[in-house]
Amino acid sequence: MMAPFLALLKRDLLLAFRHRGELANPLLFFLVVVTLFPLGVSPEEALLRKIAPGVIWIAALLAALYSLENMFRSDFDDGSLEQMALSPYPLSLLVLAKVTAHWLVSGLPMLLLAPLLGLFLVMPASAMGVLVLTLLIGTPLLSLIGSIGVALTVGLRRGGLLLTLLVLPLYIPVLIFATNAVSAAAAGMPVTGQLYFLAAMLVLALTLVPLATAAALRISLS
């Protein structure tokens, strides 16, 4: 079963790197939102240190939402999605490959850039590791949850607004627990509870979301 997974993952990564402009857009959006925030609020270090976890995570959430619509769109337009649905391999496995590719080209760059933005926002060193850990757990969650909304709206011409309305409420628990964990780490408080909850959500999403997304795709293709 790993052969079709790896083949589709490789295909999606190659297609993403052939369109470097689209690849860079979510990362640039993430970077611009975080760097402009001090100009719009205040450059005062105490304030920036306090709001840094929320700023970085809100920017990551919006950047992930910005990049979601392209997850299945090109495959739907050229008929590849129908071929995946008709293939002898489980559609949920192929969905997981596409979600993994989406995270590698959108979530992973944000994860690597986050420590630099944390330094820019004067985030304490004690919270930096927790910030990276929450992004490591949380950004795959954003891709997985978003895939359900994309699958439901892929057949619509202008499904962007509907996609936002479907997905954004499901992102709120991830945002709350992730920002709370980073803020608690900055204050020297334990964060194991928040991290365990995020990890449990990720395990649950890895188990159920590919099945739900595959069912949603079949509905959209019917």
From TrEMBL:
For this UniProt record, the keywords arranged alphabetically read as follows: Cell inner membrane, Cell membrane, Cytochrome c-type biogenesis, Membrane, Transmembrane, Transmembrane helix, Transport
The listed locations are: Cell inner membrane
Q: Where are the transmembrane segments?
A: 21-39, 51-68, 89-122, 128-154, 161-189, 195-217
One biological process term from GO is: cytochrome c biosynthetic process
Single GO cellular component term:
plasma membrane
- What membrane topology does this protein have? Multi-pass membrane protein
Superkingdom of the source species:
Bacteria
Pfam family name, one? CcmB
Q: Name one GO molecular function term.
A: heme transmembrane transporter activity
Question: Which InterPro entries does the record cross-reference, listed alphabetically?
Answer: Cyt_c_biogenesis_CcmB, Cyt_c_CcmB_bac
Q: What family is this?
A: Belongs to the CcmB/CycW/HelB family.
| Function summary | Required for the export of heme to the periplasm for the biogenesis of c-type cytochromes.
Protein's name according to its UniProt entry: Heme exporter protein B
Q: Which organism is it from?
A: Methylocaldum marinum
